Amino acid sequence: MNEFELIKNYFQKLSKKSPSSLNLNDDVFFDKKNKLVVSIDTYTEGNHFIDFKKPDLVIKKIIRSSISDLICKGVKPKYYFISGSGNKKSFSKYNLLKISKSLNEEQKKYKIFLGGGDTVFSNKLSFTITSIGFANGIIYRNKANVNDDIYVSGNLGDSYFGLLILKNEIKVNNLLRKYFINQYFMPNVQFKLTDKLKKFSNTAIDISDGLFTDLDKMINMQKLSYKIDLKKIPISNNLKKVLNLKKKSKINYISRGDDYQILFSASKSKRGIINRISSNLGLKITKIGIIQKNIEKSIIVDHNNVVIKLKNKGYFHNF
Length: 319
Hints:
By secondary structure, the chain is an alpha+beta fold.
């Protein structure tokens, strides 16, 4: 049973009388009357991060992936709450100092404040982050229109490549190793884009589980499909270099999750403003495809417009 079946079968009916819960089919809870936006995420060792040898970096990854849920809604995060379960080894004085220092750095970088939290003894290390922001409105899922352009911010694939390096599944030189590992632990969430998104986005989601998995989620309640052009999906020069060197296929690296870039759709009439904002912010925003009617299947095409079969669409939460 995947997470969507679990929610639909056991929990969705509990939210029917709460419009703010958005039918449990969005990234956040949005209380429009009180302008309150809330998201919550849990991260476990061995699943969301390999180990806790670098507590300072693990915490940065967790914080950035958590506030990403608000950012993709066009909402600036203001407060976060952090709860952790662990033992004396994971919460040693050394690790706690590292964690505290990283949290302080993230607070300054993203102008957020610690609101509270909880700690519980357990031999299984995990963290739960609640992120809170305030806004008059948000960018919802499932608001795409036929013929909308599909865009993505930044580059995709670097984080997954960093994970492969950490797992010793691929070897690169020290310079590239450092680059990809940093991309894994410190994803470049597009904080600068937060206030601009509502000017052009019809619908949006952050890419956490993988480009195509999250694209499906973004339109999952609509009778729509998509066409994505593989050659337009943006990757970094470093990833391009490594894929060419090792003769690896791009399609296998751009939808494996942990990118935390913003995926959104916008009307063709918004192309001008999107290009201007991209240029003004010095931030890469790339048009990668189009929203279609669902009478056409969702497809990915290569540079010859040939349909590509995708072996792995991304990460799925199964129980």
